[in-house]
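Lecture 7 notes: from sequence to structure.

We start with a single chain of 309 residues. Read the sequence below before looking at the structure.
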Amino acid sequence: MKHVIALDVGGTGMKAALVAPDGTLLHEDRRPTGREQGTSAVVAGILDFAADLRDEGRRRFGVTAEAAGVVVPGTIDEAEGIAVFSANLGWRDLPMRKLLGERLGIPVALGHDVRTGALAEGRLGAGQGVSRFLFIALGTGIAGGIGIDGRIESGAHGNGGEIGHVVVRPGGPDCGCGARGCLETIASASAVGRAWATASGDPSATAADCARAVSKGDPSAVTVWTEALSALADGIVMAHSLLDTGTVIIGGGLAEAGDTLFAPLRVAVTERLSFQVPPALVPAMLKDTAACLGAGLLAWDLLSLEVTA
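Now the structure, written as tokens:
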């Protein structure tokens, strides 16, 4: 059976799959990234994992994978296949596509993890049939992807969709990017967790704990939650005013709060709009498999481009 290798490299874990042409996952596997062992060990682990997947495909289907797609966090140069920088994984200017291509002996596509997750949501998930959408992942930080007619806009410098670093509270909390008051310093899952840990006096409290307290009517939790949602609504309205998106797809850990997040967020966004048509705000469908599925799509897209070239 024809298949491709899909590999999603995260800060703590890697998700991988063998993917059929229709997007079906034929085989799945997970491994720790092993960043505590250093950058060289991380890279070696990625290459070994990909090679093991190639061998698994041969055993299962009697043929070698047609191509591979790998997605990573941080800054990347998709055209050159270079993982430019990752603060979490420690690399700089890593020729990821070249290294994987030499190890596997097949074509390799490299993509950004969140933008590739957005690609999967657009084709296989909550964005199906939507010509223009914004995907927002609310996790440790906040990142996004701009979907336009079946593709994801990466921008002139590979930073398209970085809504987490839109300043919504000038002079606000310091951000790891060097600015202050970025959206992710207030509305990410980690930011909500920190705020609730302070408000509740429980240093181990998380954003999920805050959401549960909100659903029970805890006034301190409601204050923390409302501040985060207010900032998120400001960021969405800013992006929507520029992009005129039909749908905003929200994923990541914070989206697991369901209506505790979406019901007040829809109200807050609508209240902030004047002449703009409100976008539909919907939860992501593919959960934590989105980036891995997207990596498979990148691989199949690469083969399509080679056929038409």
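The radius of gyration is 20 Å. Keep this in mind for problem set 3.
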